[in-house]
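STRUCTURE REQUEST FORM
Protein name: UTP--glucose-1-phosphate uridylyltransferase
Source organism: Albimonas donghaensis
Requested output: structure tokens
Priority: standard
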Amino acid sequence: MGNKVTKAIFPVAGLGTRFLPATKAIPKEVLPLVDRPLIQYAIDEARAAGIKEFIFVTSRGKSALEDYFDLAPELERALEEKGKTDLLSEVRKANMDSGQIAYVRQTEALGLGHAVWCARRLIGPEEPVAVLLPDDVIASETPCLEQMMDAYMETGGAMVATMEVPREQVSSYGVLDVEDDMGRLVKAKGMVEKPKTNPPSNLAVIGRYILPPSVFTTLNDGQKGAGGEIQLTDAIAREIKEGRDVYGYRFQGRRFDCGSKSGFLKATVAFGLARPDLGHEFSDFLRDTVAGLRAAE
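Status: completed
Returned output:
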């Protein structure tokens, strides 16, 4: 039986080089997906799963990200005076209560495991913690982390979100070696980070994790893995070697890799089409655009 998870870590220290030159001026995490920044999707998902405290692992040049979660009294007052209650409600979704959000710095880019380790002093010695990568945006009826929390309360241990990917893409992910496939839930007997040959499966680890405190003990060792970085996958794999349970959870939903330009564009189209206020006009535009391109061939 898992202990209740109320804290989440958001690693957001990356430079966002795939989105240069835009990310020279603004953090990638506040780039808008339709009309909400990427980070807001992750925050909303965490809140829906019962997260109460939010820990951001940042780096130099991320002040716009921090400002986004601050109160904007002048803006709120202006919207209220103009009767724009819908917009006011959307703006207030970004507000955080005092003390609910914390920032720690990752001064060197040494991998995802290192980024998570940077938050260690804000996690109690007996506390499990969630980790959400904002680049992975998941469209689902029930938020992905909430799905995982429900399963985790029954299993305990460590849990990662997982999905099948084409074999030719396996080398881009951490991959599960499966001991017992129970449908939605998979018990792992091993994990491999970005296997170049002979991957144990095509079940890839996606950017949602629930971690026991023992993972931080492993990360304290600072051992480097694939790419010369401290890999979170390696620390989770150590859990298995030391006899602790690790599970993969096949979430229901559609995942978009918004860390790539093509993935970001696909997410923009999907989320735009799903919006009641935009979908009809947008679908007409896309249909006309595709028809025009085909006619020109």
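Reviewer notes: The two ends are 59 Å apart (CA to CA). The first strand starts at residue 7 and ends at 11.
Form closed.
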